[in-house]
Fold this protein.
Amino acid sequence: MQTQGASHGAPLDLVFHALSDATRRGMVERLSRGPASVSELAEPFAMSLPAVVQHLAVLEASGLVRSDKVGRVRTCRMDERALSAAEDWINERKRLWAGRLDRLGEFLSKQDAATKRGTRKK
Amino acid sequence: MQTQGASHGAPLDLVFHALSDATRRGMVERLSRGPASVSELAEPFAMSLPAVVQHLAVLEASGLVRSDKVGRVRTCRMDERALSAAEDWINERKRLWAGRLDRLGEFLSKQDAATKRGTRKK
DNA sequence: TAATTACTTAGGTCTTCACTTAAGTAATGA
DNA sequence: TCATTACTTAAGTGAAGACCTAAGTAATTA
């Protein structure tokens, strides 16, 4: 239906959805300072461990975070590529928006004409 | 609890949530090329008009889009500031992630020690 | 003035989300 | 070996999302 253009697997839907929750953004903030275990990640939040692990699953599904387990400890780290994919999409929109001025004059004359018809009835 | 830092009212939750849906991103793509009416915005999607208007409401709540009505036509336009707020947050995480190397050596020695204990039992 | 157009409003449904508690299980430490 | 620690799994709940149809309303056009 629509072009997706995800750079390497994780669609933008998942990345933006992952970032739409403050808890998950908090986790990304923490991980952007360096890797952490699940318990370390959970510590700042007043929430059950399973809840934190569910957030983590969302982050992993989006590609923002990866993790592996050594012994009984799962260590999580950020993968900045998913973040870049989101940023790239945003930048492309801003770039097009910056070029929109080409069409602004055209739009304004339409608006003006419409307004005139609306207020003065020709 | 967490610092929000939204530039002018719309929290990042709303911006990222708005961008997490392909239909809404499609609308933003369209609007980044210039303003459009509700019907113009709805045209590419196989969806009822009310559904489109609900997506629009989400976009407006996030600050990504503004609209005003002249006569019976509502014209929508993008507000790039909300997009910049999202981009800023992403950039800050990437910046910190880039600086994380300071802590990498430290982390690796911990990992190494843990692995040794795990596989060889001291 | 009557039809058409461009939305709006008001329900309703089915799914996904963000949690919870209660049990697990598998590694470690004493 | 036995308790602890560090998660995991399972099941459930209440709220939010993403649609829909049907029925307005207000502005234009014929």
Notes: Residues 21, 23, 47-48, 50-51, 54-55, 58, 71-73 of chain B lie near DNA strand D (CB under 10 Å from a C1'). The longest helix of chain B spans residues 80-99. Chain B has one domain: 12-120.
